[in-house]
Design brief:
It holds the Pfam family DUF6457. It comes from Solicola gregarius. The chain is an all-alpha fold. The chain has a domain of about 50 residues. The protein has four helices and no strands. The N and C termini lie far apart (about 40 Å).
């Protein structure tokens, strides 16, 4: 089973109609894991989903909450080469 199949199966089991942007979710999780610490990635993904759901759960709600969180992620310092 691959990521898309798993996501589709979970969405069906939970009766979720919105199809998430997997790339955006993974990008945010990666940035949080590297900019904060690894355990923050799944916690942040949960919080994004929860906040988007409270707002109504539309694709736009998810995008808005994701953008707000991405603005919080510390930018890693540039390498001195």
């Amino acid at each position: 089973m691959n990521l898309q199949q798993w996501t589709d199966e979970v969405r069906a089991a939970l009766d979720i109609e919105v199809e998430p942007d997997l790339r955006a979710i993974l990008d945010t999780a990666r940035d949080v894991a590297h900019g904060v610490e690894r355990p923050a990635a799944p916690v942040t993904a949960f919080l994004i989903g929860y906040a988007a759901g409270v707002r109504g759960g539309s694709v736009r709600d998810i995008e808005d909450v994701d953008a707000a969180v991405r603005n919080l992620v510390p930018t890693p310092p540039a390498d001195d080469a």
